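Researcher: Next entry in the queue.
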Amino acid sequence: MGSTWRRRLPVVWVLVLAVVLLGPALLPGHVLTYDMVWVPDLALTRDALGVGSALPRAVPSDAVVAVLDEVVPGQLLQHLVLLGTLVGAGLGVLRLADRGSLVAQLVSATAYVWNPFVVERLVMGHWPVLVGYAVAPWVVSAVLAWRRSGVVPASLWGLVPLGSLSASTGLVTALLLLATTLTVGPARRGRGLLVVAATLLVANAPWLVSGLLHASVATTDAGASSRFALQDEGGLPGPLAALTLGGIWNAEVVPASRLGVPGWLWLAAVVVLVVLGATGLRRRLGTPLVAALAGCAVLGWGAATLSWVAPTALGSLAASVPGGGVLRDSTRLLALVAPGLALVLGEGAARLVRALPAAARPGLGVALVLLPVATLPDAGLGAGGRLEAVELPADLAAARAVVAGLDGDVVLLPFSSYRQPAWNGDRKVLDPTGRALGRDFVADDALSVGGRVVPGEDPRARAVGEALRQGDERARADALRDLGIGVVVTERDAGEAPAVAGRTAYDGDVLLVQALGDVAPPVVPRTWVVAMTLAWAAYVGALVAGTVLGLLRAVGARRGRRHEGRTSPPRGATPPMR
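Model: Structure for this entry, 578 residues:
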């Protein structure tokens, strides 16, 4: 009974952490916060497939959701993704933690699930980043299995595509996999390197190929990096905040507890536990793997710190090298720090507990397990209420039905990227209207950060902006039609919007839909269609193959254990001589 309890407690604890962290986000409804926009039925638009005019920032994540929500309702799918991501992250790190120490397991799991990176990215709506974060320890575990068996696990074919739902997450997953692959002995590495290279190529094919197709517009404003750079958190300088996985550029999503004494307390605890746990982790996992994890941590922390020390360096890269904008939000690379940090914190906690008399160990163990929660208390219950499921206005479904019968793409007015609708509790969110309408749409992709505007990269959005600045509503309508825009959707309570001449197709409490007449949508070059078809075929093939092979091997292993259990002698019996 005792051993069963010890095995199950860490798993139950991970589930409790995830549920308490999400809180009201798990209630019926959709969670809409900053970049996280989920709707009942997301459409496979040109931008989702990587052949639209916008850079592939949501490739392949949008397409994956658009396919899955044909089977699972969007609301339920979002809840499963959010909860599954946090639970998967915790269970993944448990596979790497010291199974001989309950304290080490619980501290590692708590530190990996309940930390500033997770909370701030949740509020920012960066769910693909968190999926990649959850996949990271499973990738390390797969490499460990490779080291033991000499065979590249089929699970990597499913894990790596799942950890590459966006360009930045694909980069993190690739760096982690490559670093840990180097720890596999040369005799066992062999052809495995080719398998790893092929896996990384096909897993990142959608955004890589789409990025190449958009190379002519794939540079960003040089000044953007300074606005997305690592930031101080209260009295914590940026580099110190990054050591505890904080320092995101958007001060609006930083928990209040990070700005005061709790942030310093957690930093001090991290330093002490890292010092105490480093040697034990090296002995348990081996020097090569710990060196790989440490190297990833240094790389992630160093990239984030570089943006704090010299933001213009990354800005110049983003402005001159196509695709360099992937690094503009360099604090995303702090995901490379997290696996090694969580494991060494667990080792340090276990060593500290062992150093005390037996009577004092339970109390200190509980305190260390709860320390990440105690120093970040406002992360709970949906980041203090900032993550909350809401019902979408009925106007969105009604407008979608009307738009389905109209020609041309949609433009969203007012022509700005974010909204703060009253029905969403006045919480800021990327305009959800376009995604809810199920049609290709154009929205302004310029961002306002710290009172300064970061120009967008979408050339079609810029052209639409120019069309909306025409002198009168008839001229605006004509200019929009020339760009393939046949529908204008105006949100009534989102601010001033330029008038456009058109037939009123729907007049609701929240939305006004106007039809501009017959227009021809933009034509996608055939070469783009062929290139992206091949990229998607490779990505889906890897994901399906990895999932099926992984399940088959898991079933086979389970049957093998059952057979071994049936044929092994009873407990306490003497095995036969061989």
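Model: The chain has a mean pLDDT of 91.
Researcher: Noted, moving on.
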